[in-house]
Amino acid sequence: MTETVADYVVGRLRQYGVEVLFGIPGTSCAAVFDSASAQGLTTVVNSSELDAGYAADGYARMRGLAAVSVSYGVGTLSLVNAVAGALVERSAVVVVNGGPGARDLWNERRYGVLFSHSTGRPLTDLAMFKEVTAFAARVERAEHAPRIVDEAIAVALREQRPVYIEVSNDLWQAPCPSPEGTLDVSRPASGKEAELADEIVRRMSQARRPAILLCAEIARYGLAEGAKRLVAGSGIPWATTLLGKALLPETTPGFVGVYDSDLAPKPVRQLLEESDCLLTLGCVFGVDHSKLVTTRYAEMLSVADGWARIGDRVPQRAEIGTLLPLLGSRLVQRATAVAQRIDGNLSFASRREWAREPAVQELTHEQLYRVVDRHLDEEWVVVHDTCLGSYPAADLNVKGRNAFICCPVWLSIGHSIGAAIGVGFADARRPLVICGDGGFQIVAAGLSAMARHGIRAVVILIDNGLYAIEQYLIDPKWFTDPDRESLSYVGLHRWDYPGLARAMGFGNAVSVATEADLDKALSDARAWDGPGLISARVSPRDLPPESR
């Protein structure tokens, strides 16, 4: 049997669970949208290419695979930021692009006539996406489409990283063989896993203060149950990174907290920074983990990205999916006393008894997150943006598995609005977005797609009138010195955020400035049918306690 190249691409995506195509249609990718509609996929037209990329990222984190398609050049190059974040943070986004046809390329080479959206350099998009994906290839003959498409999707599923498929524009409607069978997405073992497991178990058993740190690959590769058996069976205290927050329910015994950085609460820092044998599983380490990794490098047993490292030894090839069950069966129960272990049922306020708040009249970060925490239950997935609030967000007592999404390694502000659209399509729970006003102003138009598709998200906007995280990183003294001028380039124009949300189609949008008003707004939000926005006026000079 045969079908068109466009149908082949969409059919394979659909076979592996993709039910939504995100993007912005253009002539170069119209055939993909046509095929997606014909095959029953929901087509979501986002407000920008960046927003479409973030939406696909959020969908992939919840479902394991996502697809996005935008116009060649002017669209795809705006998409690069979101795809780079998906690469860093392990998100299987398939970028489907229509590229120049054979005649386009000939005319450009022979006559110097630029085809639509060309930079004048050959195959710019392909070159760019090779740098930010795990696989990137171009289909230049219809009969090659099945092989290239299959390899791309298999890599995305196997590696949980983005891939790029470019199809010559004159081939979308060309016939090609229909999909056959299933793709091989297995992650083969290296043969070293049993030996490595024995060494890890030996070291962990001899340690006085062993600890386990879990991160994103555990969730992305479907290894949560194995990780749960490991921590429960061994009795060794464990934590997650912020990228891995809620990959296991935080009520799982032995949970100590989230190590988001060296500003994490003292119990979490003590557990990891003073451990004499730290097992890190599936971890993606960013700049916020520099102190931990550089000071505990010799005591770390690291398994991630297809490698295992024992202390300072040369890393060896090892498959985490093979190694993890071996560890779970061999690490025996330990009676490890951890005096400051966090009870997973504790509220945000209880987890942060150490925090001291200044006596101010305006709403603070600490108050905001304390109120949010009181309203969290199994109905919500917290989708958090990159902002100062990321630090207290680590202590939110989210309920259930995969109930927290953020961008803490790539650190792209504005990620949360688009990601919430993807989450809204991928999961039955409601997205609860927390976003700084700086990030929001970059992607505010994303509210339009949220409203159009009835995503029942609640967006909490931290309105403090500046890029606070930049002010903090460059000149933190401003927050404590009332006579000090802020940086000239971090101030924001204060928008009428509720008015903007209503203009975008939100039926519910309010502004709050006190803890009591925020509490009431979140109570009311449970009855909101569609998306809603809460603009929370936070004191511009307020810092979360970790940052003071």
Describe the secondary structure blueprint for this structure.
Layout: E1 2-4, H1 5-15, E2 20-23, H2 30-38, E3 42-45, H3 49-63, E4 66-69, H4 76-89, E5 93-99, H5 102-111, H6 124-130, E6 135-139, H7 145-159, E7 163-168, E8 175-177, H8 193-206, E9 210-214, H9 216-220, H10 224-234, E10 238-241, E11 255-259, H11 266-273, E12 277-281, H12 290-296, E13 300-304, E14 307-310, E15 316-317, H13 320-330, H14 348-351, H15 365-375, E16 380-384, H16 390-393, E17 404-405, H17 415-426, E18 430-436, H18 437-443, H19 446-452, E19 458-463, H20 468-474, H21 497-503, E20 508-512, H22 515-525, E21 532-537
Parallel strand pairs: 2-3, 2-4, 4-5, 5-7, 6-7, 9-10, 9-12, 10-11, 12-13, 16-17, 16-18, 18-19, 19-21, 20-21
Antiparallel strand pairs: 1-8, 13-14, 14-15
